[in-house]
Amino acid sequence: MEYTLNSGGFYLPHKTVRRITMEKTITKQAVFIRELIMAGILLVTGVLLPIGFHTFKLGGPVFLPMHIPVMLAGFMLNPLSACIVGFITPILSTAFTGMPPFPVVMSQMAVELAAYAFFIAVFSQRLKLNSYVSLILGMISGRLVCAILVFIFSLTVTGYKGTPVKFLIGSISKGWPGLLVQIVLIPFLVAWFKRIRLIEK
């Protein structure tokens, strides 16, 4: 019987090594497929939820429905996948519904939502912070990133009248009901998803 030296310094039979390698490959494929499916579901939800709010006049700009699935992506996907979901969601929404308006508002939201999802994923999965802390730090980080983008737009886009301070004040004063909904609803959903094993504990 032939043996192979593994990384732990032990000799294992070739068949055992092949079986372990195959199991790792299958696990990676399963994780990739799961991430792909979850990303697709969150993307579709991020496009359809604002349509529902707009159709029934539920105050989409106030309650920020697109933010909810994107922020959930931060808890359910790896940082890169979550960031991609956050970036693509407003772009798809603009392509299908015309909202958010192209190009400036859509660009702002794409960067802002990508930052939310990325930082929430880092705080919750890499730094292992609890869902409330991860969510709040992610919200702060996303708004700061978007404030920087607003500053860049103010220097480069002709006729653009936004400023970082105006953006931060406006996003809080107009969207505070949505912020409260996010702070209450998202940790509850995260806890429920952990219970039904949609999110690893």
Structure description:
- This protein is mainly α.
- It has a single domain, classed as Arp2/3 complex 21 kDa subunit ARPC3, CATH 1.10.1760.20.
- It is built from seven helices and two strands, in the order ββααααααα.
- It has helices at 14-55, 60-63, 67-76, 79-97, 104-126, 131-156, 164-195; strands spanning 3-5, 11-13.
- The protein has a two-stranded antiparallel ribbon.
- A hairpin with a 5-residue loop joins β1 and β2.
- α1 (14-55) runs antiparallel to α3 (67-76) and α3 (67-76) runs parallel beside α5 (104-126).
- The longest helix is centred in the first third of the chain and has 42 residues, at 14-55.
- The chain is globular and about 70 Å long.
- The two termini are 41 Å apart.
In short:
This protein is mainly α and 201 residues long. The chain has helices at 14-55, 60-63, 67-76, 79-97, 104-126, 131-156, 164-195; strands at residues 3-5, 11-13. The chain crosses the membrane at residues 36-56, 68-92, 104-123, 135-155, 175-193.
What summary fits the major beta sheet? 2 strands, antiparallel
Order of helices and strands: EEHHHHHHH
Q: Which oligomeric state applies?
A: single chain
Number of strands: 2
**Secondary structure tally, helices:** 7
Kindly give the count of domains: 1
Radius of gyration: 21 Å
Classification by helices and strands: mainly alpha
* CATH top-level class: Mainly Alpha
